[in-house]
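Anyone? Bumping this.
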Amino acid sequence: MARKLFVKAYGCQMNVYDAERMAGVMAAEGYEQTDRPEDADLVLLNTCHIREKAAEKVYSELGRLKKLKDARPDLKIGVAGCVAQAEGAEIQTRQPAVDFVVGPQAYHRLPKLVRDGGVDTEFPVEDKFAAMAPAPRRRAPSAFLTVQEGCDKFCAFCVVPYTRGAEVSRPAARLIDEAKALADQGVREITLLGQNVNAYHGAGPDGADWTLARLLEALSEIEGIARLRYTTSHPNDMGEDLIEAHAGLEKLMPYLHLPVQSGSDRILKAMNRRHTADAYLRLIERIRAARPDIALSGDFIVGFPGETEADFQATLDICEAVRYGSAYSFKYSSRPGTPAAGAGEQVAEDVKSERLSRLQARIEADQRAFQVSMAGRVLPVLVEKAGRMPGQMVGKSPWLHAVHFDAGPELAGQVAQVEILESAPNSLSGRLAG
Ligand code: 5AD
Ligand code: SF4
């Protein structure tokens, strides 16, 4: 009987993608995936270190897994991802039930770690992607593809430059091959992933360095691919050609995750973001001029050290000005080893909570208004799978809204035209048009 692997991803989409790749590596070793840790011979937690809460979650999960292991001592437990990179061997000190620790740049050495145990948080001398089996065949029409990893920006609050290392872009030819292989498996939508994806500068087949815009253009020539997206971007890497790609590439979806973090120039400076609020707003104007129906999404941090009420007000102002289609907001979490940790005046927890709820109310109102504005429109929906009700299918709008409508399963993987009739807080519903 095949051995079983339970893998759980925390945090960002790259972790979800990496978890799939790791499952691919272990499938080659005879492991089948299970969604029940109780059935597993091997449990892998792909962890996130971005905020303290995310990192702490891992230890409570490990506590639960230890109980499983007490009952079944041959169960193997591995910790992967950014907590693995940041804490290394400390993890095993804190939770001795952990058999191995594997950092994001060492996933291709997973089989050896599963066999021998230990800690591997080395940064690469070789291309781990070349050494990893492709992710297992997927049924969903959407897939991720990592094109770039790491970050050289060093925002003062962020662990990413330390956990994921310096920016590395993968060669374009290999990405085009992988995208073609995904299309051959029935994938219709590819989201290009990178911690700083719009800083992509991979070697092109022509010997020149390609920008993300050039890569998107090449990928949009793949016939089976209907939709392209990319995430996450930094405002300072939003090149002219990428803005133009939003005007010129029909397959590039009108949705852009472009975090600003704060609306206050003083805080932006302290965060080492290297741009002002005004520069960000002018950039958005240019992007909207290129693609008027684009929806913006963002990330915000409230309560960064030294943030005053006036600084926070500037963050609300930027939301007012941009009207995000969706946005994520977080309380500042001091991360060991980052420049902002211990620097400046910490904002009290209750002040952070209060600002967060005001910001979230503002964001939710805009999100809802955007969603409601879809009613009566006919939207192209990439059909994913059966909906909750019998005879229903669910898919995604160009702006990532879930859309429910009556249709048969034969529509899965197609782009259907759906007339939107109703807008609920978390989804849209409609009927097949025409
Ligand atoms: N505290 C709170 N939020 C953070 N983020 C990154 N680091 C921190 C931190 N120390 C947020 C940023 C980033 C998103 C992925 O997580 O908004 O864009
Ligand atoms: Fe972190 Fe800033 Fe890099 Fe984003 S751009 S990963 S927030 S350091």
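Late reply, but here is one note on the structure posted above: The pocket of iron/sulfur cluster (ligand 2) is lined by residues 151, 153-155, 158, 160-161, 195-196, 234 (CB under 6 Å).
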